[in-house]
């Protein structure tokens, strides 16, 4: 028995030293970064811009692999089930990682337990934009109109159960209004129907909504983040406009399979945060209304768990389900 235990201890020591050596040499081959959405979308663009810099910093290719489908579930699950060695990473987003756990009764992955947080890359707000012919010119006036005529104003979202839909439901509750949420297949069509006057308002992405606002096609009344958008510096936040405590943003992040060595996580975190400090990258993302973050693994884990709980409450109160 003693001989067996000594052998077991030696085996464990060898395994530990081998793992530590591998982590110290990381990365020594190309790394896959799975984006759980189609090529050309916002998540894909952010991933390519960030990991181009990470590839240069760490001396190995970080290859973007688009694996879309099922609202980000397919690609996210692929990373959850990948080897925890740092050679498969996830470009996470608020939908698959913070909202899906509540809007789906059954997911093939556990958003709380199957991933090791690396860092939050970005955050970006929505813009509350209304059609030109709608009388309100401020958010306070819009809320007053909605309260005077409950259940009559229409509000387009990027889809049932989407990040923008939940931002709307949170706004409805905190502003104490009743509006009709209309689900579209994407933020683009949702905004264009407001431009056309077919829908009263929308929660649009800052880049698209600001362009339409500057062109005079819609009126931008507020942004949903904690700070004003540089694309619309004259437009107040929802909190500034009178809805205390309201904040709703979407985000991108990097996660690895749970069990990835801490040394690997630290290497990735350090490299990514340095890339996010690049003024050229910051300026490029800011053109789309996106703010860089760059958090520690612990900071992002705390923020992620808080987001999951926040949106769970909204989903339960609004009774939103996708299966």
Automatic annotation (TrEMBL):
Q: What InterPro entries does its record include?
A: BUG, Bug_dom1
**Key word Signal present:** yes
Domain of life of the source: Bacteria
Q: Which UniProt keywords apply?
A: Signal
SUPFAM superfamilies for the chain = Periplasmic binding protein-like II
Task: Using the record, list the residue span of the signal peptide; answer none if the entry has no such feature.
Answer: 1-23
Q: Name one Pfam family in it.
A: TctC
**Would I find Signal among this entry's keywords?**
yes
**Gene3D superfamilies, per this entry?**
Bordetella uptake gene, domain 1, Periplasmic binding protein-like II
Family per record:
Belongs to the UPF0065 (bug) family.
Record's protein name:
ABC transporter substrate-binding protein
From which organism does this entry originate? Bordetella genomosp. 13
């Amino acid at each position: 028995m003693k001989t067996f235990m000594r052998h077991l201890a030696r085996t464990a020591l060898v395994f530990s030293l081998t793992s530590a050596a591998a982590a110290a040499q990381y990365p020594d081959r190309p790394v896959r970064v799975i984006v759980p959405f189609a090529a050309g979308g916002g998540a894909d663009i952010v991933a390519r811009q960030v990991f181009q810099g990470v590839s240069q910093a760490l001396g190995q290719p970080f290859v973007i692999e688009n694996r879309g489908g099922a609202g980000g579930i397919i690609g996210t699950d692929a990373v959850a089930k990948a080897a925890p060695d740092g050679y498969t990473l996830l470009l996470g987003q608020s939908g698959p990682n913070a909202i899906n756990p509540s809007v789906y009764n059954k997911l093939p992955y556990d958003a709380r337990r199957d991933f090791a947080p690396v860092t939050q890359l970005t955050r970006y707000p929505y813009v509350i934009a209304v059609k030109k012919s709608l009388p309100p010119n401020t958010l306070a006036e819009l809320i007053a109109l909605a309260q005077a005529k409950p259940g009559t104003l229409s509000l387009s979202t990027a889809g049932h159960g989407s990040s923008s839909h939940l931002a709307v439901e949170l706004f409805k509750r905190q502003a104490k209004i009743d509006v009709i949420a209309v689900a579209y297949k994407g933020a683009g069509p949702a905004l264009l129907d407001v431009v056309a006057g077919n829908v009263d308002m929308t929660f649009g992405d800052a880049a698209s909504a600001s362009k339409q606002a500057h062109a005079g096609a819609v009126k931008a009344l507020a942004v949903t983040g904690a700070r004003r958008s540089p694309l619309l510096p004259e437009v107040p936040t929802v909190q500034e406009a009178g809805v205390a405590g309201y904040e709703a943003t979407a985000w991108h992040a990097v996660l690895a399979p749970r069990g990835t060595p801490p040394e690997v996580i630290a290497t990735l975190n350090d490299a990514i945060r340095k890339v996010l400090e690049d003024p050229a990258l910051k300026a490029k993302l800011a053109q789309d209304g996106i703010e860089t973050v760059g958090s520690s693994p612990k900071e992002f884990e705390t923020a992620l768990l808080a987001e999951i709980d926040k949106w769970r409450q909204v989903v339960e109160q609004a009774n939103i389900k996708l299966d």
